[in-house]
Design brief:
By secondary structure, the chain is of the alpha+beta class. The chain contains four helices and ten strands; from the N terminus they run ααβββββαββαβββ. The protein is 29% helix and 24% strand.
């Protein structure tokens, strides 16, 4: 049997008071439920804006390494910092273009420096309002910062965006290897010019296609198989099958 002890009472349960009336936890972890939700939606950043923030943090990290770096390492770090700065500027421009409803890649200036065996290669590219490349400049310098070679390209800036002008400048005392024309291009050029043969890397090649070459070989094989039945000699015509004079009747009346 169960007995109720005198003076014993049951208090209010934890769920007896609705939270909508306001609730303050002793640890002060909670406040009014309505205050737990923001009245305005959080502004969402674009991909370009988030990338620009990451690049800013990367620039700060690389800059902090300059003090303890050696001379060579400091030069490499400075190149990386310069590239990161330029990339951050491009991302910021992209975010601005998106906000203004323009092409994402409009009016960008790309400036990248890479270390190579002989020195450095600096590449500069720029785009127009349509996001198409309009100019490409590439400069090669040696380890003493002396310019060895410069290449400047002008682009059409529309359609397939082909190169409309190209200039290559080699400094005095420096020779650069000429790029060999691909075999396919040399073959097409010779065929278009109506040539039967052309030279590529010091060797001669014909301008026939595979189908034309197969047809030519087939005709040659047929000619070899079909030989004339009669051949002429000083003594008269001879049958190549019997190897006897033509028209001579052996043993027949």
């Amino acid at each position: 049997m169960a007995f109720k002890m005198s003076g014993m009472g049951f208090g209010k349960g934890t769920g007896s008071e609705p939270l909508t009336k306001g609730y303050s936890h002793p640890n002060k972890m909670y406040s009014h439920p309505k205050k737990m939700y923001k009245t305005e939606p959080m502004a969402k950043k674009t991909q370009a804006e988030r990338a620009a923030e990451r690049l800013a943090n990367k620039e700060a990290r690389l800059t902090g390494k300059l003090d303890d770096a050696s001379t060579k390492k400091k030069a490499r770090l400075q190149n990386r910092i310069s590239n990161v700065k330029n990339k951050k500027a491009r991302k910021e421009q992209m975010a601005k273009n998106v906000a203004e409803g323009k092409n994402k890649r409009a009016n960008l200036n790309k400036d990248v420096t890479r270390n190579v065996v002989v020195g450095k290669v600096k590449t500069e590219k720029s785009t127009n309002e349509s996001g198409k490349k309009v100019e490409v400049n590439r400069t090669l310098t040696n380890n003493k910062d002396k310019v060895i070679r410069e290449v400047n390209k002008k682009k059409s800036g529309e359609g397939t965006n082909k190169t409309v002008a190209k200039t290559v400048t080699n400094k005095a005392g420096v020779t650069t290897a000429k790029k060999e024309q691909p075999f396919g291009d040399a073959f097409k050029a010779a065929r278009k010019a109506g040539k039967k043969e052309f030279t590529w890397k010091g060797k001669k090649y014909h301008t026939r296609t595979k189908a034309e070459e197969a047809t030519k070989n087939k005709k040659t094989e047929v000619k070899k198989k079909i030989q004339p039945r009669v051949k002429k000699t000083l003594g008269g015509a001879i049958d190549t099958k019997t190897n006897k004079p033509v028209g001579y009747n052996y043993g027949k009346i």
